Structure formats: structure tokens, C-alpha cells
Structures
1.
Amino acid sequence: MTAIRDTQPKHFRLRFEGDVAIVSLDRPERKNPLTFESYAELRDWFRELHYAEDVGAVVFASNGGNFSSGGDVHDIIGPLLDMDMKGLLRFTRMTGDLVKAMVNCGKPVIAAIDGVCVGAGAIIAMASDIRFATPEAKTAFLFTRVGLAGCDMGACAILPRIIGQGRAAELLYTGRAMSAEEGERWGFHNRIVAAEKLEAEAVAFAQRIAEGPGFGHMMTKTMLAQEWSMSIEQAIEAEAQAQAICMQTKDFRRAYDAFVAKAKPVFAGD
């Protein structure tokens, strides 16, 4: 067991089902806004997650019918108006560090999106590997609606890679909500799930992933992130090295032995 299972977060909810960690924001009466404290605590938790060998996948869930309403207007936006440039940059770098921590945590992250998913909440969904949504999910990158640029927390780099440059530009310029149907059609949502089944289906999916080769999943996630900035030649070489490393794992041997025995492999992540 790792220390991460003993974590008792103050600013978000956390529980475990087997090898799956289930995270959600915990202010349902205000549609789960983020605060300075929840940003920082989530960032630190995802950083630590990289070293948790007994966690195979994460579900970032909704709470009370909503995913997240983004940065809290009173707890974040108000205080930002009184900060100097150094303070503002310290804050914007911290929010970006949450995305970097999610991308580099070494575990597949499945977002289970219901209701409101806007601003920084939309970014958290975007930074996840896989997204399930209910028909009621509304996702909006609201930054221009509050007088800011759409280039927040990696949105201009990541969103076009998911849904395409033109569609991303439309959402980032207008701040309008993307419906669940649009999100699925555009490739943002992997599937649409009824609200009453959302979390259970996301957890079941995460559990299936967690049963797979943990080291292989970590390497897959690493390559998905790193190859954005590589040429095809560089990517092919990087993947050759990654596969050679994975071929030294015990899970690779387990898969072969199971195939020979006509059995299902039981992976252990080593």
C-alpha cells in the first residue's frame, strides 16, 4: 500500500474501489467550483499519484449532478483583481501545474461528466484521457466571457488535438457551451451515459483498465503526451525504446504464458 490511500483531502472527495481512485469536487450546492486550496491540493495529489503502484486508474467524477463550475467567482476571481503581476503569474502557473500533474501522473484518468462542466472544470475534463458524459452535460471554456484569453491551462494546445483546430477555435473564441451530443460527435466525449449509470460505468471501465499492465499503461500515457512535440521519425524511435523496455516486464512474460496456456493473463504491473 502507498501513502496515497491514507490521504484525507480537505478540499475534494476521495475514495477507492479496488485499484481505482474516485475523485470529485465537494461543493455541490455551488456546482463544485474550484478554490485556491482545491487547485493546490489536487495538483499535489496527482503528483503523488505517479508513485502509487497500487492505483491503476482514476475516475474524476461529478457530484450532485454537476462536474464543476470552474474557478469560484468570490474565492478566486475577486482576490485576483487585487494581485500584482507576480501574484497573478504564481496563480496561473499553479493552475497549469494541475494539468501537468494530471498528464504526468502515470495513470489513465476517466472524467465522468454530468451537468455543468465549465471554465477550469472543462479543462480538467480536457486533461483527462477518456471522457464519459450524460445527455445533460454542458461543457464550456468560458474564459473570453470574463474578459480573458481562451488560452488557459493548455487549452489552445490540447483541445485542438481532441476536437480539431476549427472546432476548438469556435469554443475558445465564443465561450459557448458544447452539448453532450456535439461533444460525442466531435470526439471530446468517448460515450454518452445515462446520469444514473454514469459513475458506475466510468468506475467499471476504469477497473477494466486497472486490470491491464500498469507499467504498459504508464508508458502509453507518457508517449501520448511526449509525442505531441516529436516528428514521426522521433516518435517511432521513442516508441521502439518504450516497447523494448516493456518487453522486459514480468507482465509481458505473463501475457505470453497465458496465451500458451489458453488462459486470460493476470497482470501485476511489474
2.
Amino acid sequence: MIIKKTDEVPLQDVKMEGAKDVKVRVVLGPADGAPTFAMRIFELAPGGHTPFHAHSFEHEAVILEGNIAAGTEDGDKPLQIGDVLLVEPDEKHNFKNLSDTEPAKFMCLVPIEYQK
């Protein structure tokens, strides 16, 4: 069993094309020997967002802090703290911090192969 504090995991810039003012902590992943999933916590600066993208696998997310919307091909879906999402395979999506002044956080799980 591995137990650690999320705020002790290094915060890294998200360098994917289309990302704006986003950082991530890989709280459990390949470095921990996780066999199936990687758990990541994303921090969005005010006005920040992840890239609008799709991938061949599902992933799950939970909103932890802030004023976040999930961007979809049908428009933005406002979310609340505690909301959980299932993003289906090949579904275009992103996460946006709607606040101009406050940061936002969400956690998501992806297959370990995607995190490597």
C-alpha cells in the first residue's frame, strides 16, 4: 500500500498544445508502480483550461475546487464541487476554470499507459 500527501507530489506544467495555465500532480502513477490507473490532480489558474481533445479510452474525473465547466462539442457544461464525470472514449472534452480570480482543481483517472 502507498500512502502520501497530494501536496507533497511535485506540481508540473501541462505542456500539451492547447493547454493554458494548467499544472498537474501525478499523485499515483508509473513511478509508484501503479499497475492499471494513474491518478492526477490538475490545477487551473484563473481563466486556465486543458486542451480540447479526445482519446481512445474512457476516463473519470471529480471536481475538487473552484468554478469549472466541462467543454463538449455541444457547449460548456457548468460543474459543481463534488460532481463526477465519465468521459467516454473518443468524446471531445476539456476542463475550463470559469473564474477570473480563483484557482480550480479536479482529479482524474486515466489508464497507466497514457501517463507513461
